[in-house]
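Dear Dr. H.,

I hope your travels went smoothly. While you were away I took the liberty of generating a structure for the chain from your last submission, since the lab meeting agenda had it listed for discussion. I wanted you to have the full record in hand beforehand rather than looking at slides cold. The sequence, exactly as received, is reproduced here:
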Amino acid sequence: MLILSGGLLIIFLFILFIVRRGTHLTAREALLNYLQAVRGGRTEEAYGYLAAASRSGQTLAAYKSANSLGNGLIAGILGRHISFVVEKVEETQDRATAVVAVTAPDFKLMLLDIFHEFAPERIPGPSLPAMIFLCRRISYLLDRYHGDDIPLTTTTETFRLLREDDGWKIDIFPAGENNETPSHPS
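The corresponding predicted structure, in token form, is as follows:
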């Protein structure tokens, strides 16, 4: 009986440690967790990392709708090629600014390729040849952008964070800015 209660105590302390750990994240850790959640399409988790003022600017349902990655096929192909490196974090008592190098697929270059492949004048008129053309072009593009040959680009983005009672939170709608445009792209 003593061994059983000792085991339960250890499990309780372990759970308490895991639960409390989330409230003691550094600004860097909170930001990386938020970015990973966004990249992974975990919108509810990402929403939880937003500052109270940013959450009040939109409901969870609105945030999910605006940030959903769709069915996940394309997100899975492209998402694994996105990486984040926090280059610098400047903290004051209750605010932080982080500079992040984001390496991601060169979406503009890829879209130019897609638009070229699917230019209306290239699609055959009859239905069956059009279906064959589209299937082959889509397969070609999926093969092309599935491996390690995806063109990448690195940008520097700035994020603002606020320290709240439950830890560091991402401030995507700083006071005085339009709540429809996230503040982080720079």
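Two observations you may find useful: The domain at 27-170 is CATH 3.10.450.100 (Nuclear Transport Factor 2; Chain: A,). The radius of gyration is 22 Å.

With kind regards,
E. W.
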